[in-house]
Every structure is written in C-alpha cells, then in structure tokens.
Amino acid sequence: MASTSNSTSSKIITLRSSDGEVFEVEESVALESNLIRRMMEDDCANNIIPLPNVTAPIFYLVIEHCKKHAEMKDNKEKKKELRSQGEELLKSDPHTYSNLMEAVNYLDIKSLMDLTAQWLADFLKGKSPRLIRELLKIKNDFTPEEEAEILERNRWAFD
Amino acid sequence: MRKKKRTGRSIVQDKNHKNMTHMKNQDEDHISKLPDAILDHILSLIPLKCAVSTSILSKRWKELWKTMWADTTTLDFCGKFATSDQSYHDTCDIINRFVHSHRRSTIDTFRLHLDCVPDIQEWVEFAVEKRVKEIDLDFTKSMYRLRKLPPRLFSCDSLTILKLSDCNLKLPLVFRGFSSLRVVHLTRVEIIQSSLERMLVYCPMLEDLALKSCSDFPMSEISAADLKNIKSCLLIGGCNWSANVGSFLSKLAHVQILTICQMMMHGFKVPGYENAPGNFPITLPDVIELQLEVLNIHSLSDFYDLLTNWNFPCLERLMVKWSPNSCLWSGRVQPSGCVFHCLKMIEMNGFYGDDKQMQMVTFFLEKAVKLDTIVLVTPKEGTEGYVRYDEASFGFLHEQLLLLPKASRNARVVIQEDERR
Fold it and tell me: Is the Cβ of B2 closer than 8 Å to some Cβ of chain A?
C-alpha cells in the first residue's frame, strides 16, 4: 500500500526509484517482491533501498496492482475484473504494459508476474495475427515468400 | 534526488506525467522487445495452436514458440487443435511432429481430445517414458470409440491423474496398480465390474473418483478399507448402478465431497441394513459438500428418503441442480427429525419458483440452524426452463421468500440469473 500520513503500526520500508523519487511502502507489501526480500535479508533494512531499473510512474502501477491483488483474494468478481483490465491496457498503452512487465520481472513478484503474463496471453488468444500486429505495432519483416513458407509449414494453426 | 513523500492521491498526477512522456513511443513495438524468457512464459499460457500462429507475426516471433514447445510440460492437443476440416492424417502428422520435437525429459500433462480415433500407442508410450503425471484422453467428439488402450499405459508408475472419456477400459491380466494415482475420472467408459474393482483395490492413493455414465459399477468385492482415502466421489448416470450405490457409498467412510444424481437415489437403501433398524441412518461423518444433479420434482421424495436414511452431520454446502421439466410429486412426508447443524451454504440451480421448489427452500430454512446464504439460481434466458419474471411477479416471489420462517436468523436468500452458458 502506498504510504499515508496517518500510518499504521506496521513497519515502513523506504525505496528509491531510478528517477530519484522516494517511496514509503508497508513492509507486507514490499516483501511481495522477492528482490526486496533478498535485499533486506542482506541487511539493507535500515537504509533506502535503490531500485535502479524501475521508474516512479511504473513503480506506482506496481504498488497499485499489488494492492488490488491482495484485495482480490477469494473474490471471484474482483479476480475477473483484474484479469480483464489487461486487454484495455494492451490496446491503449503497450509501452506501459511492457515497462510494467519488466519491472515485475525485475522485482520478482510472483503474483503480479502471473497476472501480467496472463494479460498478454489472453490478449493474444483468439486474435488474428494481422490484428495482433496492428494493435501491438509489430512490423511484419518477412518477405512474401518467407511468409508463405511459414503458413504452409503449419497450415493447421492458421485456419 | 527529490525527497518527496507521496500519498496514494498523487497517482493521478503521475499517470498524466507518464502519458505525456510516452506519447512519442506510441508507434513503436514494445512488446517484441520483452526478453525471451518472458515471451516464452506467455506463450506457454496459450493453446498450442495459438502459440504456433504467432510465428507469422515477425522474425522476432518466428522461432519463439519452438523454445516454448521443446521445453513445455503440458502437451495439450485439444480444443481448436482438432478442427473438423482437418483430415485424420493431418492430425496424426501434427501430433507426431510435436511429440518428436519435444526435448524435456519429463512432462506433467498429456491431453488428447480428438474428433477421430488414431493409433495412440506411440504417443502413450512417449508420455509414459517421460514420466507423465496426468493423462487425459477424450474421444467424445469422435464418431468412433477407442476400443483398446495401449497396454503400456497400465505400467505408468508416475501417473497421478487419469481422465478418460468415450473409450473402453480393460485392465490387463497382470496389473500391479498405479501406486501414485490420486484422481480417476471416467466418462462414458465401458468397463467391466471386475476391472473397476481391481482399479480401486490397486490404487491405494486414490482420493478423487468420478464415474459418469459408465457401463458398470463396483460392487461386493470392494471393502471399506480399499476406499479409505477417497475424499471426493461423483456418481452420475449409467446403468446397473442404482441397486448397489447405497452399499458402495456406505463404505466411503472419509468422503468429503459427494456428487450424485437423482437416479442414484433410488438405490440408497442398503441391503442388509433394512433388518437392522438400529443402523439407520447411515452416517457419512466427513461429508462437507453434497451436490445433487438433475433433480426433478418427482424425485423430491427420493431426496427426502436420502435425508431420512443417511446422515451427514458435518454438511456445510449443498448444491442442487434441478432439471427444467418437472413431473408430479408423489407427496412424501418430509423427514421430521432432520436438523442440519453445520450447513452454511445452499445453492439451487434451475430455480423457477415452482411450488415444490418453494417447499424445499422452506424445508431447509426451517432445518438449517447455521445457514448463512441460500442462493437460488434462475435459468438463463434462452435456456430450457427459463421463466420471464416481470418486476411485479419477481417482487412477489422475493416477498414470499422473505416471509418464510428461518431457523438461522441471519440467513440471506439471494436470487440470481445463471451466468454459465
């Protein structure tokens, strides 16, 4: 959870993003990240923990989703809602998605890794390659001959 | 370094900031720049066919699925994999190609849901050699049944889950059992009684048994000790069953989740027990969830018989699925002494406010002293049994439900439409 002025009794961890912003985060949330957990075990607990690979806006997103993920435990509706949010994000802002994915990977947060990976997996499912290319701005760099060859080799996958 | 402590509110501000800086990146392909490991992981989450189709996206994606495939632990040939216009030989070719290019030494799952019945011997041998944990073979969509399972299957030590649909199952003469098998789900499987009994006897770890519309049923040779680990049991449909189902169930001393259909309830009188009234009701002490399928109004009396002759002292959840077409009720008296001390949740699917259904709701509201919630699920529009309620009649139904006497003061009655397709 992002810190608030009337903070609760739980321990607060201080983190610094790559662009120099300082965050205060409750320990229980921070420990979702295996990277932070390992750093704390190496006795950085009393200092500010630097996160050189994560920018502040992305770190906000991570915290926000950690919070949502904690809330959705045993709540099927929330789970469904959270899972469906990926479609929108990938359509409107694939760059933020890829930054979030890399941050989650770097911070090593298992629950969010599963969620964000599922977002892209769901996104790819049931869409034609043409539509996927268009939405994700993937440039088709095959020659027509190369493309025909791939289509022929795995014809069954393309009906 | 800015030393600025933030609150949750400033997220909005930040989003704006982020959107501005990222505007110029909108036409770039960021997803393809993700590391191989991440994209591999993502491809492993989508069906094989869809993963293969990503090879056409760009050169970056061309070979990605192959890494994923060679290293996958789940070989899943089902769903859209087998399309109707794909010939029998195409299907075999494709599966052969994938089986041959798989590199990992072990696999978890081998799943085959086909609309044809090819020779599966080589594939099953492949799976057994890779120490497969779950085998799932389904030929429901095929015009033919699989007549004989490859013998190698029966020596698969690593197997923990076996699911078979629309095939014949005959154990070989020499069968040492599956020492780690925990789950057996058989649907429309032709299996003779003795095979089924040996299966139960020689799979000591079996926890979850589901027999759906199978040809036969385990009978006399099974002892309670053979079934002591079974925690979940589903018995639906099939012939030759109902006469023995009571005696079989009475041996499931530790079953926790029990699913049965209305046909089964006819057979709930246990031979031998009639002469010893002291043994009634038969107690299944660990059952916490009871699911009753395709119950129609006619079987309400069977249902009350079930509650008279059987005792589920720890029952917490009850799910009833009604069949849409109701028959005449034979007017059996409700069991009088019956009280549910632990029942917290009841779900009734196919609820349309019929008199007899209301009787059942009344019955449970009176008898379940700890009830939290009773959920009445009405059939979805366009499905059988759908009743259109205008606001007035819906309100009336709701009012009637609220007026019913409740043994548990806090019990909630919820009406909702079926969300499933």
Answer: yes
